[in-house]
Every structure is written in C-alpha cells, then in structure tokens.
Amino acid sequence: MDRALVDMKSPVNFRMTRRGFLKMAGAGLTAATLGNTLLDFATWEKEVQAAPIEMIPTQCNGCGNRCGIFAYVKNERIWKIEGNPEANGNLGLICPKGHGYVHELYNPQRLKGPLKRVGNQFEPISWEQAYQEISQKINMILLENGPQSLFWVNYPQSNNLYALRLMHALGCPNYFTHGSTCYTARNAGWRMTVGELPSNDLGNARYILIIGRNPAGGIDLAEVKKIVEAKEKGAKVVVVDPRHSETAILADEWLPIKPGTDLALLLSMIHVMIREELYDKEFVKEKTVGFQELEDETVYYPPEWAEKICEIPASTIVRITREIAQTKPKGLLHRGYHGAFGSQYLNSFQTARALAIANSLLGNINREGGIYFPKSAKLGELQPKHPAPDLPTIPKGDGTGTLGRYPVGSYGDGITHAIPELALRGELKAGFVYHNNPLRTNPNPKRVIAGYKKLDLLVVIDTVLSETASIAHYVLPESFYLERTEAIDTKHSGKRAQVSIQQQVVKPLYNTRPGTQIIIELAKHLGVEKYFKFNIEEANRIRLEPFGVTLEELKKKGFLFVGEEWKEGLPQLGTPSGKVEIYSKALEDMGFSPLPRWEEPLVSPDSKDPHSFRLLHGKQAIHTHAMTANQPYLMEISRYYDMVRLWLNSERGRRLGIKDGDEVEVESNIGKGRIRVRLTDGIHPSAVWLPSGYGIYSRNLKHAFGVGLSYNDFVPTLFDPTVGHAMTSEVIVKVRKA
Amino acid sequence: MPRYGMFIDATKCVGCHACRVACQNQNELPVKENFNRIEEREYGRFPDFNREFLPVQCQHCDNPPCLKVCPTGATYKRKDGVVLVDEKKCVGCKYCMVACPYSVRVISEEHGIVEKCRLCIEMVEKGEQPACVTTCMTRVRTFGDLSDPASEVSKKIGKYRAKTLRADLNTKPSLYYRKA
Description:
- Chain A contains 25 helices and 26 strands.
- By secondary structure, chain A is of the alpha/beta class.
- In chain A, the strands form seven sheets. Chain A has a seven-stranded mixed β-sheet with strand order 5-4-17-16-15-6-7. In chain A, strands 22-24-23-26-21-25 form a six-stranded mixed β-sheet. Chain A has a four-stranded parallel β-sheet with strand order 11-10-9-13.
- In chain A, α13 (303-310) packs across α14.
- In chain B, β2 (37-45) and β3 form a beta hairpin.
- Chain B is globular, with a radius of gyration of 16 Å.
C-alpha cells in the first residue's frame, strides 16, 4: 500500500486537456487556431492549459425560472456553469436541467438556418426571403380577415414585451402564454381574493403546509433551500399530495389526499379555524370582507364530512389546523403552482380561493414567515422616445376578460389551448409560436394538430424541430440561449427586487438570430417599424434608467438588486374593496359563487371498476415540459433509472395481476398508449401518475422520439367555465395488463 | 495535513441528480459515464410510506480495496486521503472495478482507463468545494477536513452519528452518511 502513498502534487485534470483536444480536433474547429500543431497533443495541451477561462454571468434557459448562472468559457467552448449566489430565485444553486441543457448548444439536431415548407419537406432559405414571404402572407391575411385572425403564443420570458408590442402594432389582441395549461386557476383565485399573486416567505415560516406543489420535482431551487433551512430552524413541513412527491421526502408528514378533493380539506380546515376560534380576529376584522358569510357557509364542512370526501382522517385535519394556527402568522399554506389547483380541476379556481382565505384567517398576508407580496422591478418605459402602439380595440378571441365568456380568465395569458379550436372554427388564420410547443404540451394532440394545421400560416421560432415546428410553414431558428442577449429580466422578485440579464456568452454556431432581433426585423418587414426604431442594447439601457444602474454594471454582475426592501404590513389591496375578499361581490355579479363552496371534480373514477383510475401527472427534476427530453445527458438519467414508468398503487396493481415493471395499456376516451409501471405504495389507490416531459413524437428529436408517454395524449379538450383553464387532471383512464 | 471527506445527509436527498450532471460537466464526462449514483428505497405501506435516496460515489477509503488489486500502481492514495487514478499508469484491466464494493468506478470508453470521483481535487486545492456539494439545493453533502474536529464536516458527523457504508468490510471510507 505504501508504494501508492505518494507526495501531494496537483494532478492535472486530464479530461480538460486530452478529451477537449479530441473533441475539438474531431469537430474540425481547431484548424484555424492550431495551424501546424494540429494533432500535436503536447503543444496543444500547453496552449489549452494556458488559455484563460472566462466566467460570464447570464441566465439559464433550462426552464422558466431563468436562474442566475456563471458560464465558464474556455477556447470559445462552454465548459460548465455555476450558480450565481446573488440571484433571488436560485441563490447559487443549479438543478440537473441547468447543467444538462448547456449541452444543447452542441446538439447536432439544432436548427442551423431558416426553413420553408415545400410540400412535405423543409428547404433552407435566407432570412430576408423568410421575412419577406412571411410578411406578405400576414399582410394579406390581415387585409382579408382583420387583426383578430392573427395570434402569437410563447412561453413567458422577458422578450415578451417586444412580442406584445408587435402584436399591438398590428392591432391584434391575441397574445398567449402557456398559462391555461399551467397556473391560471391559481392566479385567478389569488387575484380575486387579495388582488395579486403573492409569494411564500418559506425561510421564516414555522409551519409550512404544501398542497399539491412539488418544488423539489418541478424545481424551484430557492424554495427548496428555504424549506430545508426553515426545517433546520424547527419548522414543521406537511405535504398534501396523492403521490409521495420529492418534496414529501423532505416533509415531516405526508398526507395522501384523494385527488381532486383539496377543496374539501381546505373548507374543513376553515371550519375548524372558525369553530375553535383559531383565526386572527384582529386581521379578519380590519383587513377582510365577508367573514360572516364564510362562517355561515363553512358550518356545513366539519372534518367528519371532509374525511369521507378527501380520505384524510378528521382527527388529522383538526390536528394540522390547530398546529398551523398555533404558529400564526408564521404559518403558511403554500401559494401553489401547477399541482392540485393550477389548472387541474373544475374546482381549482375555488380551491385557490379557499387556500387564499385560509391563509388570510391566519393573518399571515404580507407578514414575515407567511404569504407576502414580493418586490418586483418596474422597468423604464420605451416611450416617449419610442412611442407604443395603441392597445387593440377588439376583444381577445378566446373570451378572456369578457363577461359571459371567461371573465375571470387571464387576459394577459389568454387561453392557449383555445387556439386550435379557434383555428378549426376559422377565426384564427395565422400565428407565431415562439419558445413553445403546443403540439406536445397542450391536451388532446390530435385536435391540436388539426387546429394548427388548418392555419393558412404558421411560423415557429425555436432552436430545434419540435412537434410544432415540424408542421410549420416557416421555421425561424433562434440562437441558443448561450449565444444571445435578451431583454432585461425582472423575473427574480423577492424581499428586494432584482434586474437581471441573459447575455451572449459564445458566438452563434449557426445561421441563427436572437429572438428580440427576429421580432424587430419582422416588425420592419410588416410595416410597423415606427414602433421598433431601437435595438436590444438601446432598449435595455432605457429599461434600466429608473434604477440608477448602468447596462455595463448589469452585464458584469448578471444580477443587481434595485429599489427598496420589502416591509411587513398590509397596504390597500388590489381588490375592489381594497381588503381581502373572503366574499367576492365581483364574482357574484359575474354569476359565480362568491364564496368557495364544495364542488365535485368534473369526472371521477368508477369505484366498482378495478381498471378505472384518475390520471395524474407531474414534473421530475430532470425535465422541463417537452423541451429537455431530447438532451442525452438528461434522458440518460430517465433511461438508467427507468423513470418514464407509470406510478400505480401496489394493492390496486396486485388485484389486476400487474407486477412491477409490467407493461400496461392505458386508455381514456380520447387516447391509448402502452407504458411499464412502477408499482409503489407511494400513490393514492384511486390514481395513476405519469411523469411529464416524455412522449416526444417529433421524429426530428432523435434521442427522445418514442420514449414514454405524455398525459396530454389522454386529456380531452376542456375549458373550465370560470377561468378557462384546461382541467388536465379531469381524466379517467382504464389500466389493463398489456 | 488535512484528511478530506464528506458528510452525506441522505435524509435530505430528493434524487434530482444535479450532482451527477454537475460532476459530468466539471470532469467533461460523456453521457453514459458518471461518478454519482443514486439508489432509491421505499419503506412502509400506503399511507404510512416513505422513500429515501442514497447518493453513492467513490468513498475515498483509507483502506481501499481498489488500490490493493491494481497491478500497475495506477490507483494511489494521497496523504490527504484522496484516492486517485494515474491515467498514465492505468491499463484499463478493470480489476479495481470488480474489487470496489461500492461499484463507483467507471471505464472510460474513449480512453480505455478507469475513472471515478476525484473529490474535485483541483478545486479543493484552490479553496473551493467539489461540484456535487455546491450545486445541491438541499445541501446533502458537507465537504471538509475530517482531521479537524472543529470543521463543519466533523461536527455534523458527530452530531448525527453518521456512519460509513458497509463498515463491516473494513474499507474505512472518508464519506459518512446520515440515513433515515
């Protein structure tokens, strides 16, 4: 053994030399830099080791959180990323998607130039030709059908301001995000109750009750870090979820609720708070309206009633209600995201309302350790220097914000899964899809394909040939996130607001352009250049003006704190009464229940049929929507750990003769598929759970094609009557051994 | 002389695999080669159920079985306890892979040699922490000097009475675990 005990010496990490050498030599990228030394490893090794490593701050694009990162660049190649400790949203941490998505830069399946559909094929064309042809077609469609026939849909990001400006310049109101398939019910519930969507002060909370949300799976790095820190300081964490989520692993207690019944749990918690006078009386008196009506309503919801519906024992409901009330105002019910009431059920909107009301009864609104209104940077306006177009005068085609249609729906997000329906009805004729893939991420893909294919013009801006890009008339390739600079970002709100920037780290490898440049160039060709007489550099400078910081400072640091610190206390709220609206007169006037009342989910599994289950879905930490499945570094984890499987309750599986790893057939009234099962006691017997992010059917995404299933293949096209959200867990499937 | 090691709080691991990909990037590993494995176990019956993830990487044993079987002396242990492979001496015979009871050694297809977790020793020598430590959102790993009783890692090992994996094998790992 002694022979191996050598002196301390710094070993060279040979992978940074030899492997890098082979990679670069193989890629033919070294010819210019190496000259005669090509394939002379020793010389090259010296050069490479001497080459400086640059560390450039930017923002990750592996999901919508846009975490602060430092990109390490050596010899013009990305080596790795590290977390920016300043960034509110990730506090120096990076998730697997962030590390893995970096490799997309070098994915050979990336788009390398603009494409035009000719028959069933794509042909490469120039940017100029693409812009000219797209503009001619759009102007023709606008002339014949008016601005209501056009739409733009994208995943939310800072560039949206310019997409919105472009749509408004064309007189078009039809701007969409993916919200109706994700979070609009939650947002509407909070908005109608306290005026806006708040945040959770997890780090200071002493009791954290999380219903449906799984920040350790649908990753929110800062939230998870704070939950762990709160626990270390003695906080109790309770997770209510039909599945033993990754967050449940961190919890003190897991309460496997019957899916779709979270509203019953909340109503009976409210019942207990009132019956036992556990609520914050002063807060209720001073800061809320409609408490008396709530008391009258919730008298019908004792825990014994809720137990029969949600299958959480009445004694447990009483206990957790007493426990959380003891910690008030430093106890909170997590504001939620997608899971449980983001866009899942017919009762999701009222569930979000009940959750907001339960928090209010704890008196924790805008309090430390409770629910708080985060500080968010208000960017400088481009006008008057660059006048903004007038707001569109015609209503949005999906009916959001329109009385008699979806008045509580989010006008800003729109109802994204209504786009194919409006196209099938001939109301939408042309559209842009940017950083979004509705053909895979909307429910009922057959219908979505039919709708998008009926368009006279579909333009997709993306980095790969996604399902949606694959049926487009034109595909405009966006530069990868490490190759482009974007609009100033205000996403990282918190106890103090932040501005941040995603900036170019390496030169574009192919004939691609940044999204903002594409929008500005489209505007010029569409004849609305008067609203776009700026470039992103100038626009970013104007945006920063109110904060007294320069673009140079921001580029150097990546993230800068701006504005004042958050303070406790409840200002005038953005509700009609300026208070917490337990009872909502506005909802009553629109013909909806002014108080949360128990309502059943739209559909429920047949308890007499051993094959009948509710189909649930959720994120795994390694995938974002449909955009990471094609990344080999991430997909290899799915493959090695067999993570694409359907979760099925052990006892239910046993009764069906299904063993762990068996293949089953899953069938709903709109779709059918085959998948292997993970037999587990970590899921409620009435449901099966499918991880999201799989089921890629674009043949152009070779690593992901045909692996696993997507829940969207089983979910019918549904619109919640209040908000318009997609109700993506209102689906019953039959599971049989294949 | 420090003796480097880790405290691994498996009760906090949510199985996200950020450590794996951070490590792959740090060490420029190809897709199928990695130094961090995560094992998952389920406990109990519905609804009294729990599960645990166990991150496993090179245990940097004080008595490393891999070292004993290496015919070329490629595997060596530094005075600070870090077990490394000298790639110039490794002939890729894989004896060490068989000998390692933790199955944490990988063969590099490209180079025909055996590789494994190196505790990011270049970073550590610059005063930084290994990539798997800093990326983790629940702070599963605490890295530091085991020979210093005042170090955070030593304190946590003491506080949680952390144990090594398969202590019965007398490999004397430098990685200590807290498990449920």
